[in-house]
């Protein structure tokens, strides 16, 4: 049986329409998931929506709807965006679904029985936009340290989860598993945070203040804190406590992909919740950077968002995916601009990749009546291109396994650029005039390079890869092992030169 690979995205808050930041995480995860499928792994890719809590409640009120009606209207927008972007998720979990609520309540029950949850007095400051409590200890002024907005002072009876009991264990676990939190500088960030005593986590909200949440199984007066509820999706979506066979097959998750803004819940709360439940740790939590607009994080609460649907309709899903993945390394911040997007489309996609396909197929049409010729003898130069093409899988594989997606793309582009240079230097138009048989080799080589490029870009730009395969007359099956083989393009096959895959944008 193939190895499994379980990868997740955060669950997006459904308090407004999805934006570029959300699409970024899903595009990253989709590319990794597709890459693993290319390699033959049995992938489980989970995404979904985070639907409880004050933020969603307030947004629903602002729209004069009850929270359930409100989220029911928004969820289709997320799903529609994922469809537009060809996000190949295997499951979509909503925190309002019974399968999730059941697991949350069972987990709460277990931890309560175990004595890891207790009733206490809560006094502190609450930031509604961030859904975060801040205690006096952490505060110099009554302003949210994260979003810099005013905090609300609160005092009430609430339930707490004993984070403090597990702090020593967590420090040791993170220190001993340097791959657990990635990129590695984030490990240091979490360890630095853990140098201060960890307060217990308030995991309930009194229904007098908030009803829109999962009721606690041991109190009629409280609902579950939205973060405690939402994190559990990674387990409930895999069948924890509801489908044991499925869970034991899928767990541990291989990668939780998140944005750097939600490092603490994923690297402190979640591991401790799992430890308390005696469940294995996920293999990796990877925090990617932010897309900035005007020097700030793009976000709904800041009101500086760029609409992904507008960009996709204008430039196409694959160009949009390509830009986000190619422009920055995973883990770093990026600045989004339409101008930069256009530049990338014109240079990398229209010029480098699009032209290579177009010129090559134009020559198959012109010189060989659209039928792929048999290659003739190989000159040293022909052999160099071939060698480059059948060995790119090595670097590509290593970079992808290391989650260096932008470098993996650059690695493929080295081959594409080599092939463009090969056309310039081999001058097929002169070979054709001279009736030189080397023309057959040159054309065949170029088609093979395009086949290999097509397979390697499939995880990032699936539609483009399929269209390249269609034009090359290949069956649209993408397999990693085919990268290592030369000669899979069949001489004699008819190619179907189409319109340029990426027309230049003026
Ligand atoms: N609901 C929580 C997550 C719960 S996971 C159990 C949440 N939701 S969110 O909708 O606010 O953001 C989710 C994710 O969207 C962030 O972690 C990040 O992956 C992504 N992004 C949101 N804004 C972003 C940018 N401006 N840039 C890049 N990604 C960002 O947090």
Notes on the structure:
Helices cover 48% and strands 14% of the residues. The protein is of the alpha/beta class and 506 residues long. The protein has a domain at 337-484: Orthogonal Bundle (Isoleucyl-tRNA Synthetase, Domain 1), CATH 1.10.730.10. Bound molecules: 5'-O-[(L-methionyl)-sulphamoyl]adenosine. 5'-O-[(L-methionyl)-sulphamoyl]adenosine (MSP) is lined by residues 10-13, 21-22, 24-25, 50, 230-231, 233, 258-259, 261-262, 290-291, 297-299.
If you consult CATH, what is the topology of the domain at 337-484? Isoleucyl-tRNA Synthetase, Domain 1
Per DSSP E runs of 2 or more residues, the count of β-strands stands at 15
Q: N-to-C terminal Cα separation, in Å?
A: 50 Å
Percentage of helical residues?
40-55%
What is Rg? 26 Å
Annotation keywords:
elongated; Isoleucyl-tRNA Synthetase, Domain 1; 506 residues; binds 5'-O-[(L-methionyl)-sulphamoyl]adenosine; 14% strand; four-stranded antiparallel beta sheet; alpha/beta; 18 helices; six-stranded parallel beta sheet; 48% helix
Strand and helix map with partners:
Layout: E1 4-13, H1 20-38, E2 42-50, H2 54-62, H3 67-84, E3 91-94, H4 98-113, E4 117-127, E5 132-134, E6 152-161, H5 167-176, E7 181-182, H6 184-193, E8 201-202, E9 204-206, E10 222-224, H7 226-231, H8 233-236, H9 244-250, E11 255-259, H10 263-276, E12 285-288, E13 291-293, E14 296-297, H11 308-315, H12 317-327, E15 334-335, H13 338-368, H14 380-401, H15 405-426, H16 428-433, H17 438-457, H18 462-472
Parallel strand pairs: 1-2, 1-11, 2-3, 7-12, 11-12, 13-15
Antiparallel strand pairs: 4-5, 4-6, 6-8, 9-10, 13-14
Helix pairs in contact: 2-3, 11-12, 13-15, 13-17, 14-15, 14-17, 15-17, 17-18
The protein binds 5'-O-[(L-methionyl)-sulphamoyl]adenosine.
């Amino acid at each position: 049986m193939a190895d499994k690979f379980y990868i997740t995205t955060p669950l997006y808050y459904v308090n407004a329409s999805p934006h570029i930041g959300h699409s970024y995480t899903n595009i990253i995860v989709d590319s990794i998931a597709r890459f693993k499928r290319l390699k033959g792994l049995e992938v489980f890719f989970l995404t979904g929506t985070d639907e409880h809590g004050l933020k969603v409640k307030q947004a629903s009120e602002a729209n004069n709807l009850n929270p359930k009606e409100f989220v029911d209207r928004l969820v289709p927008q997320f799903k529609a965006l994922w469809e537009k972007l060809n996000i190949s998720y295997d499951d979509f979990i909503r925190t309002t679904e019974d399968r999730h609520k059941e697991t949350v309540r069972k987990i709460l029950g277990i931890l309560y029985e175990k004595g890891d949850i207790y009733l206490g007095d809560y006094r502190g400051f609450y930031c509604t936009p961030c859904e975060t409590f801040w205690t006096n200890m952490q505060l110099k002024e009554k302003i949210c340290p994260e979003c810099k907005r005013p905090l609300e002072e609160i005092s009430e009876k609430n339930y707490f989860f004993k984070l403090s009991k597990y702090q020593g264990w967590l420090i040791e676990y993170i220190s001993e598993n340097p791959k657990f939190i990635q990129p590695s500088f984030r490990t240091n960030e979490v360890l630095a945070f853990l140098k201060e005593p960890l307060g217990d986590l308030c995991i309930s909200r009194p229904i007098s203040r908030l009803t829109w949440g999962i009721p606690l199984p041991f109190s009629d007066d409280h609902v579950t804190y939205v973060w405690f509820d939402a994190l559990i999706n990674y387990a409930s979506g895999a069948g924890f406590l509801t489908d044991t066979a499925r869970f034991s097959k899928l767990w541990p998750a291989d990668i939780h992909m998140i944005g750097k803004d939600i490092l603490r819940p994923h690297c402190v709360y979640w591991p401790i919740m799992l430890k308390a439940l005696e469940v294995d740790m996920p293999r990796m939590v990877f925090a990617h950077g932010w897309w900035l607009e005007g020097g700030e994080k793009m976000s709904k609460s800041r009101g500086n968002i760029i609409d992904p649907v507008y960009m996709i309709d204008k430039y196409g899903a694959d160009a949009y995916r390509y830009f986000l993945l190619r422009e920055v390394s995973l883990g770093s911040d990026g600045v989004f601009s339409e101008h930069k997007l256009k530049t990338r489309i014109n240079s990398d996609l229209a010029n480098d990749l699009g032209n290579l396909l177009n010129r090559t197929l134009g020559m198959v049409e012109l010189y060989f009546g659209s039928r792929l010729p048999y290659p003739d003898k190989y000159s040293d130069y022909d052999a160099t291109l071939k060698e480059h093409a059948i060995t790119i899988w090595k670097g590509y594989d290593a970079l992808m396994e290391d989650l260096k997606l932008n470098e993996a793309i650059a690695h493929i582009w080295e081959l594409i650029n080599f092939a463009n240079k090969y056309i310039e230097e081999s001058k097929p138009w002169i070979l054709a005039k001279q009736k030189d048989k080397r023309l057959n080799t040159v054309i065949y080589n170029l088609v093979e390079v395009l086949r290999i490029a097509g397979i390697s870009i499939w995880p990032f730009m699936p539609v483009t890869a399929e269209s390249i395969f269609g034009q090359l007359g290949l069956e649209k099956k993408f397999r990693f092992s085919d990268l290592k083989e030369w000669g899979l393009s069949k001489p004699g096959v008819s190619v179907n030169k189409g319109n340029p895959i990426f027309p230049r944008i003026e």
